[in-house]
Amino acid sequence: MKYFFIAFGFFVLSFSAMAQEQGEDDPLLQLSGAVLTGDSLRPVPYTHVVNITQGTGTISNFQGYFSIVVEANDTILFSNIGYRNSVYILPDSLPDTYYTLIQMLEPDTIFLPEVVVLPWRTVEQFKQAVINVQLPEDDLQRARRNLALLTLKEMAMNIEDDPGLSSDLAIRNQQSYLYNAGMYTGSGQQAVVGALSNPFAWAKFIQAWKNGELGK
């Protein structure tokens, strides 16, 4: 039993030394950061962050934040649809076990060739459609058609009765009847009423009164 504990102790010390030696040679690092646009500094969500050296990768979240385990001198590829790919190489020596990175991506404009969609399958169908095309009427022809007497008469006959207009007309007729009730409606009375409602007649009357012509 004593020899078992001695052997187990030597195994633990050897494993710790190997792990420490390997850790000093290739220490693991935590690479965290955000992916932003280079023109407006807005986050680029769902960006592919690939460690080309180690063959691992991750995807940034909706705010563009990402986190991945890397080693020194690893090559990191950032790619997203609509943006140019960007590559970042980690330094060969880092003082801490974590590293923060703000990666910029430039928009990538893709120019596609022009596509013209036509409703005709062949050139012959297109020619036939051009021959049979009906040119639109000009403004003068449309005005003449709209002002035709038959068209206006038909439109007037198809106009529906408006309750508001009918009620207003009835009220106006009743007011006119009550206003003229008990009055003489001959030509002389009409002339007097017309003169009283004529502003030019009132102007002549006031001018004559100022000139003293009424006394004469």
Number of strands: 7
Tell me the Rg in angstroms. Answer: 49 Å
Main β-sheet description: 4 strands, antiparallel
Average pLDDT confidence is 77
Poorly predicted segments: 1-19
CATH evolutionary superfamily of the domain at 2-105: Immunoglobulins
Please, how many helices?
A: 7
CATH topology annotation of the domain at 2-105? Immunoglobulin-like
What's the topology here?
Elements: H1 2-25, E1 28-37, E2 48-51, E3 56-59, E4 65-71, E5 75-79, E6 86-89, E7 98-105, H2 123-131, H3 139-146, H4 149-157, H5 163-179, H6 187-196, H7 199-211
Parallel strand pairs: 1-7
Antiparallel strand pairs: 1-4, 2-3, 2-5, 5-6
Structural notes for this entry:
The strands form two sheets. The protein has a four-stranded antiparallel β-sheet with strand order 3-2-5-6, with no helix packed on it. A three-stranded mixed β-sheet has the order 4-1-7, with no helix packed on it. By secondary structure, it is of the alpha+beta class. The protein has a domain at 2-105: Immunoglobulin-like, CATH 2.60.40. It is 42% helix and 19% strand. It contains seven helices and seven strands, in the order αβββββββαααααα. It has helices at 2-25, 123-131, 139-146, 149-157, 163-179, 187-196, 199-211, and strands at 28-37, 48-51, 56-59, 65-71, 75-79, 86-89, 98-105.
